[in-house]
Amino acid sequence: MLKGGFFVKIKKIMIQKFFHSETKSISSASLILAVSYLLSAVLGLMRDRLLAGTFGAGNELDVYYTAFTVPDFVALILIFGAISAAVIPIFSSYLLKSKEEAFRYLSTLLNVFLGFLIIICVILMVFAPFLVSLIAPGFLGEKKELAVLLMRIMFLSPIILGASNMISGILQVFHRFLITALSPLLYNLGIIIGILFFVPAWGLAGLAWGVVLGGVLHLSVQLPALFVSGFKYRLSFNLKDPGILKTIKLMLPRSLGLGAGQLNTIATTAIASTLMAGSIAVFNLANNLSSILVNAIAVSVSTASFPSMSLAFLKDDGEDFLRKFSGILRQIIFLTLPISFLLLILRAQIVRVVLGAGKFDWGDTKLTTACLGILALNLIAQAFIIFLSKTFYAAHNTKIPAIISGLTVAFNIGLSLFLVWLLNFSESFNFFLQNILRLGGVKNMGVIGLALAYSITAILEAGLLLYMFIKKFPKLQTKEISASFYKTLIATLAMAVFTILTRQILGSVLSLQTFWGIFLQLALSGIVALVTYVGVSFYLKSAELKTISDSFLKKFLYAGKY
After folding, report:
1. Is the Metal-binding keyword given for this protein (predicted)?
2. Distance (Å, whole) CA 66 – CA 80
3. Mean per-residue pLDDT for 346-358?
4. In angstroms, rounded to a whole number, what is the distance separating the alpha carbons of residues 365 and 348?
5. What are phi and psi of 309, to 5 degrees?
């Protein structure tokens, strides 16, 4: 009896410690989030492999990705717009005064925000047929009806994720990054359960219910940590509350900016729906592969730094604000530049290992590989966009990212239409891209134009954001950033040379017609790339390498000493 009681007590202490767990430094928090995003990425790769193997790049996946677009749009502009631009800074300002006042604001916000989300989602469910016609004009008959059904089911997801992501933002203010890091893993797990168990029972609708399950799991892991933090729910619904009014004022430009950015996805989907069947799936699968590691780095670092940068700005400590900005930007460059080169060099191996199964045929593989190569060119730009936007929000400036996002969306739509037209009517341009991307025999090249426009637009947006930030904060010291960039570039080029040599040597001795042959070529080339990059960075005395390695050692190897 005593023994059983002892273990129950130990278990209770461990659970309490888990939900009370705090991470104080930006580097440690970034590391925890990056590891969790990488684990989530593994589940994401499993999800995409199951999707590609089960459905192939055809009509069914086109329907799923199209139906997902509008619920995702609602989630981004309302949920992430509010959290990034408003909730964390305003909650932090209340917390500086009183914890009770901060939680009163949170209760009111949850009630108002979720009430509004429910109304919006119900209205959009009613108008789902019109929305499908708008974003996928190429969908007709049964294809359109199925997209409408899936979209209506998935409109439950923004409501659940609305509460969950708001709670995530609050937990980040309390430095409880470990708990918030688990939620993306569980979200992907829900979708995987949907593919494995719901799809065989309910068809493609089961996939939509998997998305809803993912949202439920995303929320359920965070609720205990919120109550452990001292939150007590209050039934208050005051639209005239000063905190609520300030939240709406701050989130509107951010939401408009995100909405404009998400119009890129909607425009791409609309154009792709008029192309060859499977074009939507090919673009989305390639985009998922290219963005997985960028999200693991840029999102984790930006998320971890956002609360402390917001506080630095609130305290009017400009020097600390810019010092943090410089350090984080250098870390992002250090981590994303080599990944961009690696994706470009090993794109074929990545696509074949991750997606090359079941109904995903050789034509799908070639097109997805080509799209991935083009999208790899914009990885560092995508990382810059994520971080620079959040930095502007930390400085309570949501207008600049919104205006730039709106301008670049218009540019992307125009460029996409032009490139798709050019690929359809210019034989010389078509022939040029087919040779560069090794797409001999592929007739419909339209989706390549979409990927190319997407990359060019991302580079333009990142450049504009960086220019405006330097203009807004002229005291930023760029000398350290430039020196770090040159060291990173040298290490990346050395890595690229050794990776290409390794890939070619392994290609001559391994059987590349089998999964394990391709997997070994990818894995061994990746190991050589990692060793080379770290070795050259160490030789060049990279400060970023030291910062990251010190954080890793402190968090995971010497945890008991701190």
Report:
1. no
2. 21
3. 85
4. 8
5. -70, -35
